[in-house]
Amino acid sequence: MTAWLARRLTSLVLTLLAASLIIFLMIEVLPGDPAAFMMGLNADPQSVAVLREQLGLDAPILARYFTWLGALSHGDFGLSYTYRVPVGDLIVQRLAVSLPLALYALVLSTAFAFPIAVFAAARANKAGDTIIMGITQIGIAIPNFWFAMVLVLIFSIGLQWFSAGGFPGWQGGVLPGLRALTLPALALALPQAAILARIMRAALIETLAEDYVRTARAKGLGKTQVIWRHALRNALIPVLTIIGMQLSFLLAGSIIIENVFFLPGLGRLVFQGIIQRDLVVVKSVVVVLVFAVVMINFLVDLTYVAIDPRLRHEKRGK
Amino acid sequence: MVSRVSRVLVLLILPILLAACGQSAPREGVVLGMQLEPPGLDPTSGAAGAIDGVVYGNVFEGLTRIHQDGSVQPALARSWTISADGLEYVFHLQPDVRFHDGSLFDASDVKFSLERASAPQSTNAQKGLFVPIEAVEILDPLNVKVVLKYPAGDFLFNMGWGDAVMVDPLSAPHNGTIPVGTGPFRFVDWHKGYAITLQRHDAYWGAPAKSAQIQFVFITDPAAAYAAVLAGDVDGFSAYPAPENLPAFEVDPRFEVVIGATEGETILAINNARAPFGNLLVRRAIAHAINRQEIIDGAMFGRGIPIGSHFSPAHRAYEDLTGMYAYDPSRARVLLAQAGYPDGFTASLKLPPPSYARRGGEILAAQLAKVGITLRIENMEWAQWLDQVFTNKDYDLSIVSHTEPMDIGIYGRDDYYFQYKSAAFKTLMDRLALTNDAAEREAILRVAQRQIAEDSVNGFLFQFAKIGVWDKRLKGMWTDAPIQGENLSEVYFER
Prior knowledge:
The structure holds 2 protein chains of 2 kinds. By secondary structure, chain A is an all-alpha fold. Chain A has helices spanning 2-29, 34-39, 45-55, 61-73, 87-122, 127-141, 144-158, 174-208, 211-219, 223-252, 255-260, 266-275, 279-307, 309-317. The longest helix of chain A is centred in the N-terminal third of the chain and has 36 residues, at 87-122. Chain B is globular, with a radius of gyration of 25 Å. In chain B, strand 14, helix 10 and strand 15 form a beta-alpha-beta unit. Among the domains of chain B are: 62-168, Dipeptide-binding Protein, Domain 1 (Dipeptide-binding Protein, domain 1, Alpha-Beta Complex); 264-464, Dipeptide-binding Protein, Domain 3 (Dipeptide-binding Protein, domain 3, Roll), CATH 3.10.105.10. In chain B, helix 7 (280-289) runs antiparallel to helix 9 (329-338), helix 8 runs antiparallel to helix 10 (355-369) and helix 12 (423-433) runs antiparallel to helix 13 (438-454). At the A-B interface, helix 2, helix 3, helix 5, helix 7 and helix 8 of A face helix 1, helix 5 and helix 11 of B.
């Protein structure tokens, strides 16, 4: 187990190093001078040159990579070109929106997906199952930004229950914060829930064909009960994999939803950074996201072991 | 069993219900939407229009200020005297003016601010404004003399730009994040990516602001902007980003739609140094091939004023030159044939992201195709556009709005991206700089407009409209935008 952990951690560090180099190089080849961008159409060329020097843009590429990596290793992301504040602070501020939003959406999607999947699996290939699976197919097909706009139309403009967007911050309390994140989380959760429900239904149907399920049924348990008590746990491995992927996706991929609801999240920070050539911000956020994805995968691997004792023995055997 | 499922469901969905029932706190002051978030809040460093949009006239003030009608009015200088030769300006400063951090504003701050802006290490995007300054002399704490190298007729106007605001030596280095000025509002909070909050500065030297608080909320997506106005999340947009929604607002009795003028001349930029555009006949052919109204209707949903030169129709010296090259495709073909291109030619059209450029580009390509000019459209991001088109002049044609006020002088710059070189125009600009008399200045400006129109330097399309959309109860908003910022001290919400 310890050896396995050590192996996983080494590969984690190597992945991050490789990612940092790729990210750095990719951003270097992006056309566009951040200094020129900041100074606009009427700018004095001398002012642009001074700004380039201030931003450290005139150093050679390799030197800049190692300076960046060195600073990164002790948690210093550098100063944002445009905002002129530490990027670390920006990321922390944005994570205070993106992380709760991702978790909220994940909770909602799981909350929808579990009962739907159980319901459908218990009625596999019967009318109820067909209808539910048809609906989830639609759920997958609906683009989440469109669904978001429909939600805004109904709940913000029509009923005026929620504001159409924005995020007041957590300092006003948990409830106003959650309230602001509700529509975005719903918009994000629906397609995810549809995907999760379909995967879970398939996994459940597969486990329902196992011998122990027949035994349980023979004992006199109802079909739904068998699913909740026995099949669910065994169907969790593929489901967890999907949940892990979804969390990564929700963390990094909510740019469009953040735009629709004008939320100050990580996605918009990257988006803005790319447009304004705030390369320090782009590099740093991508590194943070890579780190988050790698960590999530690592945690998912750990949970596999926790859920499935067979994997534990396998690891020990090696 | 069913109870267990529902228990899980209730537990997980409870937050939604709770959130839906909770009442949001009542809003204070005025909330305005803005499409772009400023990168920083120091107007003396960086060119983004959004900086001035937030702080100009609100947090920071200059010696003079540009009023809504474009006129120059006293601000931190309550009056001034100009020597007969136009070389010496003595500014008499407002007494008892304090910065938001409590430090006193006096002549030494004027000297500091002007010298800082023109220093070699300055990153002021409009350094040109300060080039005429020879020296700044402190006469006494409330009087300061600015000596110019040569008479500069637009000096007072230039001192009203956001780039020329007065700052304090102590707070100046931090103005990008914590702006400290002398204006009617002081900076409170910047929730990056979301909103900036300003609060009324109670110790303001002038008439106090009518609203206790102004909040700017940044909404990039046009659809989100529409929803935010309809849902009442913002009281309005001074510059509303989506002209396509205007009919919906115009019929809605809750809202007011106010169309005004900006200083944004939207042009088809032509690379005059590149064949075949160096040929005046070709540029005139292009001018005849352009149907301005069609572009305004298609790209701006009818909002915009056709222009025939690089000059704002709102200005007194404006000369309507839209008739110089009437829309006439057959004339354009004749001119092309004369220039040696009877079958037309192919060129690239590099477009920045705003919708006026992207939509306008499609329409323009169709119009030029009718006279035999085939355009290859290349869409690019701003940074890429600045790099390729603006800095390296690697382009044939482009569409862009020049938003700076009174910027006809760019046609006199040698290395500007149009690559227009005219000794006669430069002489005009030099004469303008030396002229203080208003009537004479106007006369020169008219000649200048006519010259660049005759030389058909660029395709002149339309003046960008300022589209204001706000709640009917919001009062005191500006109709026109003679400068990139807007003084909000008169703005309040009628409750």
